[in-house]
Write a structure and sequence with these properties.
This protein is of the alpha/beta class. Helices cover 47% and strands 13% of the residues. The protein has 20 helices and 12 strands.
């Protein structure tokens, strides 16, 4: 960690737009800031995690964090970037999601100083007419109508927009005003897609109080190779909740990021120092095939979100499945994780090559016994990373083993 926060944020890729005329203000004065997540789901994604990492740096440099769970704004849902109206959450789902987001805040920022607030706490008792008089009166319609998402929704090809979604930025702006008054919050941090909503709060504070507040936004993380928003896969978003994205899939996601992006992700998603990141990159460049940078990234992010024990288990699993580590090193914890991820088959403890062919078919590693035999003849089948030959006879000691076809196609065999 450097002493200069603004330089740290810039180096790590957390600087997009800011209302600060001089970003070094963050270095000289300790501020109270807030960051909010709407409970539209019961988990944050790695897109949210990028901003959370920026928040961690702010806290580490002495700034006070207020973390908002958007119980009120979550009732409506942010319309920005959406082509049509969101479906409303039930009160039960909203409460479940709020609890889950708060739990993730506590995990990510464990050991740091922060406060969690819920905007439902101050919106639930607000009188509608009073709100229009005291707040709405200070918000010019031109400002709200000028928003890009409003224009697109109201255009000829747009799906239209309800008054509720149209009012979202006003509600979020009031969050900033309320926290400015009650918590001395003078800074909101956000992703670049929230710039408009955040500026609404700055303007509201200026118009009503005559005082100054600020926004610091970070760019959305984009895959340089595809140009797509980072964190999306064929199966959807990458979630922080292990029930939505398993720890195995989470680790594998980071392990498989491409070479062009890995240095950026190390800066954004880990707390490693410049020297530690440079060391990983140097080792990676000397031997790209070993993927040292990706391994470091996968371990560090998994440790942050799922704990060091889970990260160590996933590191071992990856080395067994795709590296050179002896599968006999896998314990009950690792196999419990793998049972949820890989296909399985039962084989006799004293298995023959025909039993192996059957296991290949049963696990989907071969489409037929004929294809399975051909894989064996070509030396493409391994058990516990040992190549299987036609004359192979396995006298298993353990109850489980890893069977692999080629470099990356794995399954579990259970000895019975």
């Amino acid at each position: 960690m450097t002493k200069n926060l603004s330089e740290e944020l810039s180096w790590r890729g957390f600087t997009h737009q800011t209302t600060f005329g001089d970003p070094s203000t963050l270095n000289d004065k300790k501020l109270t800031f807030y960051w909010g997540v709407d409970p539209s789901s019961d988990s944050m994604t790695i897109g949210n995690l990028a901003i959370a990492m920026m928040v961690k740096h702010l806290i580490d440099h002495g700034h006070k964090a207020v973390l908002l769970v958007g119980g009120a704004t979550g009732i409506i849902g942010d319309p920005d970037g959406k082509s049509k109206e969101r479906k409303l959450l039930s009160p039960k789902d909203l409460e479940r999601n709020k609890s889950a987001i708060a739990k993730q805040y506590k995990k990510i920022f464990e050991g740091q100083d922060f406060e969690i607030v819920d905007n439902q706490d101050w919106f639930k008792d607000i009188n509608y007419i009073d709100f229009l008089r005291d707040v709405g009166k200070h918000v010019p319609m031109r400002q709200m109508l000028g928003r890009e998402f409003v224009q697109s929704r109201l255009g000829d090809q747009g799906s239209g927009i309800s008054y509720a979604e149209f009012s979202y930025s006003l509600i979020q702006g009031y969050d900033f005003l309320h926290l400015f008054r009650e918590k001395d919050v003078t800074l909101q941090v956000c992703g670049s897609d929230q710039w408009g909503n955040s500026i609404a709060g700055v303007e509201l504070i200026r118009r009503i109080t005559g005082k100054e507040a600020h926004v610091w936004s970070a760019p959305l993380v984009v895959n340089k190779t595809t140009g797509a928003k980072f964190g999306k896969t064929e199966d959807g978003a990458v979630w922080l909740d292990a029930d939505k994205t398993s720890v195995f899939d989470f680790y594998q996601f980071w392990l498989n990021v491409d070479d062009k992006n890995v240095e950026d992700y190390l800066k954004i998603y880990t707390l490693l120092s410049k020297e530690e990141i440079q060391k990983a990159i140097d080792e990676f460049k000397q031997n790209p095939g070993d993927r040292k940078a990706q391994k470091t990234l996968a371990y560090e992010v998994t440790k942050l979100i799922h704990g060091s024990v889970a990260a160590q288990s996933q590191k071992l699993i990856a080395e067994v499945l795709f590296g050179k580590e002896d599968a006999l090193e896998l314990g009950e914890r690792e196999y419990t994780m793998l049972d949820k991820q890989l296909p399985t088959a039962k084989v006799p403890r004293n298995m023959t090559t025909e039993d192996i062919v059957g296991a290949l078919v049963d696990t989907g590693l071969a489409s037929s016994k004929t294809e399975g035999r051909r894989f064996l003849q070509n030396g493409a089948v391994y058990i516990n990373n040992q190549k299987i030959t036609e004359n192979f006879l396995f006298d298993g000691v353990s109850k489980k083993a890893i069977i692999r076809r080629g470099k990356n196609n794995c399954a579990i065999i259970n000895m019975v």
